[in-house]
Amino acid sequence: MSAPSAYPIKGIFFFLSNWILIRKIIFVLFLTLVVALLAIFLTFGFLLSLQANALIVAGCPVWLAWTVSVIFCILEAGVITIIFYLIITPIWQDALFDEVLKLKGLGYVLEKQKNTSEGCCRGFCSGISAMYTIVVVQIIALIITMPLHAIPLFGTLIYCYINGWVMAWGHQIHYHVEIKEWSAKQSLKFAWKNRGDYSMFGFVAVALELIPIANLVFLWTNVVGAALWTADIILDEQKLLSREDLTDGRAESSSYQAAQRMDGSNKT
């Protein structure tokens, strides 16, 4: 299995090579494009001169003040687009995530959601509740850490790392709660225990989403990347269980994603 940081990049290629994925989110993609353009217009139209003048008054050289202000506006437009995306698109994200699993031949994993109407309803309600809880956490984290961009390069790197873990967890909560039927607490515990891998995935994903205009696509390819990561986890679990069946014993797993370890480590 690839390193977690590789999956956001894999998601780009997988998304662009499968028209069925693009078709699923074409409407909301257009809507996000409109918001992104408005965000760029508002930040450059109203905030650019304000920020530049504030920096000049603070003693910053004129050329540097305007350069930094342009960078700030680009980042601010990206953050505004991300916040809109977080609020409006969770249902489309789940549909896209599930479609990737189907394309990877793992559609049967989704079937247990449909076994009973009661289980389906409970899983859906739990998933929606957990999803929007994470949305709130993500938005708060984005706003609180935004001043880090004032530190050239290193501030943005720290910003990506801090928000990366939250983003990665947000992309996996659908699988944890609605498919594996974990509680939100179990999901959080698992995500925190494996925060290294989650931060690796999220660091790259957040960095991609800070790129204006292109982030309209990267917002979705990151979901695809998360689903590809999950698909590889499931396939690794199957290989492990197959080896156990063949040897009629208990195989030791070096992967934290092994199904039995995942379930066992999250019992409360």
SSE order and pairing:
Blueprint: H1 7-16, H2 19-24, H3 26-57, H4 62-88, H5 90-103, H6 108-111, H7 117-145, H8 154-179, H9 184-193, H10 195-209, H11 215-247, H12 259-265
Helix pairs in contact: 1-11, 3-4, 4-7, 5-11, 7-8, 8-9, 8-10, 8-11, 10-11
Task: Offer a quick outline of the entry.
The protein is mainly α. It has helices spanning 7-16, 19-24, 26-57, 62-88, 90-103, 108-111, 117-145, 154-179, 184-193, 195-209, 215-247, 259-265. The radius of gyration is 20 Å and the shape is elongated.
Keywords, separated by commas or semicolons:
12 helices, mainly alpha, 268 residues
List SSEs in N-to-C order: HHHHHHHHHHHH
Question: For the report, how would you describe the main beta sheet?
Answer: none
Overall geometry comes to: elongated
Which percent range fits the helix content?
Answer: over 70%
The number of helices is 12
Number of domain units = 1
- The oligomeric state of the chains shown is single chain
The percentage of residues in β strands lies in under 5%
Distance from first to last alpha carbon: 29 Å
What structural class do you assign from the helix and strand content? mainly alpha
Radius of gyration based on Cα positions: 20 Å
Mean pLDDT: 81
Number of strands: 0
Q: Low-confidence parts, pLDDT < 50 over ≥5 residues?
A: 116-124, 250-268
